[in-house]
From TrEMBL:
Residues 1-22 are annotated as: Disordered. Residues 27-167 form the Glycosyltransferase subfamily 4-like N-terminal domain. GO terms for biological process: carbohydrate derivative biosynthetic process. The keyword Metal-binding does not apply. This is Glycosyl transferase. Residues 189-347 form the Glycosyl transferase family domain.
Length: 378
């Protein structure tokens, strides 16, 4: 059967899909909006089941999808609401572990195909980590197809018991904003003055202040930069539970680091930076890595998760947890403008190889088409 298009074949009704999203991180929520827009444009009926605040933030209804409020919890009432929304669906597509678990419960006893996208890996310790592994097994075995956004997520799904696990890399939907080179030259002095980085290198990290982001390692590396002249300034944009702990270290150790909280002008901040830093213990398709390469900002990142496949040879990669290696990579780049120029050019080429939103929608549609049969008109 050929892929579904805006004109359903004669004698068939349009495909009806339900997209299920939990709380959803920014990446998966933006992906669902992008996917909903692309599917609706191709004549597919789309219902997005997500908390009301997610529809307000990402505008699923604005792109032609129906929205059904389903709370984040997996209590019986939420599962019942989801089950009702999935009635008569040709296919259900859930995004993220918790949304996928709810979808599996809601579809229990029905023959509706369930596609699951794993956008990232949950981070937890102790009893919660054991619970998450149980949920992963339940979801992997219940899904008709698991799409992993990175090859290691695909491998994880297979190890967990998925019947069919495939790579389903997603585009960077609606980047915050791309700043062109002329605009960057104008913005650079203003932003650097605001941040206190005039006459010194500016290093930029972006992401929630959580344990898996590796900011403790980044602060260890910052101690080595204190010996440089001028001393680089590390700016971290983001909020999270570790803010107080990180701030205490910065003050106690007199580190050249500023925490500036959550920001909506990340594109402008990157345009002013000399280097972007990504020290995480694990990432899938990191938004920061993609935006840094788009913005022609040299990137130093950990060789974890989907990062090596994502950036190829367009970044300096170091082992996670190795603060001397991280510090050394930064020092070398700050002292090597030719290597920085090379990374900028490689970044442009690498970014051009990433899937577009249209290509992402087409791939998902091919999976849907494979899993559904001709649908007779009522």
């Amino acid at each position: 059967m050929s892929p579904v298009s805006s004109n359903a074949p004669h004698g068939q009704s349009p495909l009806r899909t339900v997209q299920v999203l939990g709380g959803g991180n920014a990446g998966s929520s933006a992906h669902v909006r992008s996917l909903a827009a692309g599917l609706v444009a191709r004549g597919v009926r789309v219902t997005v089941c997500a908390p009301a605040e997610a529809d307000h933030a990402y505008g699923f209804s604005d792109v032609g999808a129906d929205h059904v409020h389903v709370p984040r919890s997996s209590d019986p009432s939420s599962v019942a609401a989801l089950r009702a929304a999935c009635t008569d669906a040709d296919l259900v597509h859930a995004h993220g572990l918790h949304a996928s678990f709810r979808a599996a419960l809601a579809l229990s006893g029905r023959g509706t195909p369930l596609v699951v996208t794993w956008h990232s890996r949950a981070h937890a310790e102790g009893a919660r980590a054991h619970l998450l592994r149980m949920l992963e097994r339940r979801v992997a075995r219940a899904a008709t197809v698991v799409l992993g956004t990175t090859s290691d997520l695909v491998d994880r799904a297979r190890r967990t018991g998925a019947r069919d696990a495939r790579l389903g890399a997603v585009a960077l939907p609606g980047p915050r904003r791309l700043v062109d080179q002329d605009e960057a030259e104008l913005l650079r002095p203003k932003i650097r003055a605001e941040l206190g980085a005039m006459g010194r290198p500016l290093l930029m990290a972006v992401g929630s202040l959580d344990r898996h982001r590796g900011y403790d390692v980044l602060l260890d590396a910052a101690r080595a930069w204190c010996r440089l002249d001028p001393v680089p300034l590390l700016v971290i944009a983001g909020e999270g539970p570790l803010r107080a702990e990180l701030q205490r270290r910065i003050e106690d150790e007199e580190l050249p680091v500023r925490l500036i909280g959550r920001r909506d002008d990340v594109a402008e901040l990157l345009a002013a930076a000399d280097l972007a830093l990504l020290p995480s213990s694990w990432e899938s398709r990191s938004v920061l890595a993609q935006e840094a390469l788009h913005a022609r900002v040299p990137l130093v990142a950990t060789a974890v998760g989907g990062i090596p496949d994502l950036v190829g040879d367009a970044a300096e990669l170091v082992a996670y947890g190795d603060s001397p290696a991280l510090a050394g990579a930064v020092v070398r780049l700050l002292d090597d403008p030719e290597r920085c120029a090379e990374l900028r050019e490689r970044g442009v080429r690498q970014a051009a190889s990433w899937p577009t939103e249209d290509e992402t929608v087409a791939q998902v549609l091919s999976v849907y088409d494979e899993l559904t049969q001709p649908r007779p008109l009522p």
